[in-house]
Amino acid sequence: MSLIFEVYQIALSEEQIESITQYLKKIYQSGSKFHGDSLAALRTEQDKIQKRINQVYDDKLDGFVD
Q: Which domain of life is it from (predicted)?
């Protein structure tokens, strides 16, 4: 099986390049924000669960739970 590649050259104005660059930066920032927000939510949930585990453990040690 042979692969055929065609190469095209396109010319973009400085304005088009700037527009594309800004668009790509916006997409990247949006993805980064989503990632950061998701990570923060997961850490909050993890902390909540760990707090519950610690409380149950303390209750067990104190004899409140058999």
A: Bacteria
Rounded to whole angstroms, the Cα distance separating 31 from 25 reads 10
Q: What is the reported pTM?
A: 0.59
Range of the domain at 39: 23-66
Contact 20, 12 (CB under 8 A): yes
Question: Strand, coil or helix: what is 49?
Answer: helix
Q: How many angstroms separate the Cα of 23 from the Cα of each of 14, 18, 62?
A: 14, 9, 58
Q: What is the mean pLDDT of each run of 10 residues along the chain (66 residues)?
A: 80 95 96 95 98 94 83
Q: Is residue 1 part of a domain?
A: no
